[in-house]
Each structure stands twice: as C-alpha cells, then as structure tokens.
Design a protein that fits this description.
single chain, mainly alpha, Endonuclease III, domain 1, 2 domains, 13 helices, 64% helix, globular
C-alpha cells in the first residue's frame, strides 16, 4: 500500500482509541459454511443481530441448497427489511452459494477442516466474488489464521482517519491490519474494533430530499400583453418576436378594457335616470 509509514502512524493513533473498548474475543467456530454465512451478515451488523438473521434463514429453508435457489427478495423478507443493508447482504449470500456450487458442485466446506491451514487459506482466497470480510472471518474463527477481518463500518473509519488509502479495497485493508496486529491479538482486536466502529462509523444523512421548485404558471385571465412580455426571453431575436406579440395583443386588450368602461358608464346613466323619474 502507498504511504505505508504514514498510514501506520495514523493507525497507531486510532489503535489507542480502539483499545479502550471492552469486548471479549469471539469464540471459534467449527462449521466453515455456517461461519461464511455469518460473516456475510456481520459485514453489515453486530454479531447478535447476524445470529438472529441466520437462525431465521435456517428455519425458512430445508437445507442450504434450497437457500442457494431462493430469490434475493425472499431472503430480504426472511432476514427482515429493517436489517442493515438487507438487499446487499441477501445478494452476497446468493452470490457466495452460487460461486461455491459452481466450484465444488456441493455446498459442504467440512473437508477444509481436514486440510492443512495453508490449503484452506489458498482455497478460500481463490473464491473470487465472495464477500472478503466473510472469507476472513472463516480463516480467523475456523482455522485461527493470522487474519484481521474488516467490515463495512471498520473500512469507513480507516479511510476517514487516513489509516489507508481512500480507494483501498477490503482485501488491501485486511492485509494492512494483519501487518499491524499480531496473530495472537487478532481475535480480540477484531471484537474491539467492531464494537468501536458500530458507534463511531460515519452515519448516512437522513434528511429528506427537498421537493423541486415548480415555476408558477401565468393566470388564465391575465392581460395577454403582460403575459407575453413576462414569458418572453431577455435576449436575441426571441425578445423582438415577443415584443411584436405584445404590441399585437395590446390593442385587443385596450378594446376589451374600453368596452368594459362603456358598459359601466351606461349602467350608471340608466340608474341615475331611474332615480329622477322616481
């Protein structure tokens, strides 16, 4: 990563704040497939909420293969529309299951537990298209690899504080964290940073978008000469054309006003003559 020494200095400042958080390290997990799904869900929410959503998914489908063919919209309904970034989480779940099925022709990752740690790492890192945070949580919690996952909120804080490049990918951020945090400290640091990020991550603005301002339309009974002048552009030949229209419309408007004046005068004379006769 560019400017590595500068980013390391900024990260040390942030690390002092993160260390103040009291959070227990997350326990290890035996089932890699279960942790992969949990890792996708915890990319957007806390561990407790992700576990609740994972329980809903288990109840809603017969097996994980049925979940693979479940539409994204139905997964959103299962985990709840109020789940943080529910649509993105549902899409990540579908994408991960499809990538795994296309590679293995099944959805069981138990064979990785019998493999060497490096074999499991190389296999999971080769699964392009699967959520990077989820893959890292599998390596950390199932294989105790030297890996520091970074969820969405954690990445936003690292970019904001200048600890990484503004356009750094999740994979690059996780490599940087692994270079700064030892393997023994990784589980505890991940729990602390996740708790810190849930409080200090930048929030999206909830202000409603202002309604577009509509231009007022000219009144229907307005003077044609005035309407023509106000509607005409201020420059070019269009101004001359508008002036001509206004001049043509002016006599008509004048005639209508004079006719109205005469009518009022007649009514006044007739009323006064009636009073005399009385």
């Amino acid at each position: 990563m560019k400017n590595a020494s500068m980013h390391a200095r900024e990260f040390k400042k942030l690390l002092k704040k993160i260390r103040k958080e009291s959070a227990a390290a997350l326990p290890p997990v035996d089932e890699p497939m279960e942790q992969l799904l949990r890792g996708i869900l915890t990319d957007h929410a806390a561990e407790a909420r992700a576990n609740a959503a994972l329980a809903k998914l288990r109840e809603a489908v017969v097996d994980i293969n049925e979940l693979r063919v479940t539409p994204v919209s139905e997964i959103v309904e299962i985990i709840g529309a109020d789940y943080p970034s529910c649509r993105r989480a549902a899409e990540d779940i579908c994408r991960a299951l499809i990538v795994l099925f296309n590679k293995l022709h099944h959805l069981d990752l138990a064979f990785l537990k019998k493999s060497a740690r490096r074999t499991a790492e190389s296999f999971l890192n080769s699964l392009h298209g699967i959520n990077a945070h989820a893959r890292a949580t599998v390596l950390l919690r199932c294989f105790k690899s030297h890996c520091v996952p970074a969820d969405v909120a954690m990445c936003e804080i690292l970019r904001r504080e200048g600890c990484v490049e503004p356009n750094a990918s999740v994979e690059e951020i996780q490599k940087f964290l692994a270079s700064q945090i030892s393997a023994a400290q990784a589980p505890g640091f991940y729990a602390q940073f996740k708790k810190y990020a849930s409080v200090h991550a930048p929030r999206k603005s909830s202000k409603p978008t202002p309604a577009p301002v509509e231009k007022p339309e000219p009144a229907r009974n307005a003077d044609p000469a005035v309407a023509a002048k106000s509607a005409a552009p201020k420059t070019g030949n269009a101004k001359k054309a508008a002036s001509k229209v206004a001049r043509k419309a002016k006599p008509t408007a004048t005639k209508s006003r004079s006719a109205a004046t005469k009518s009022v005068a007649r009514s006044t004379r007739s009323s006064s003559s009636r009073r005399r006769h009385r």
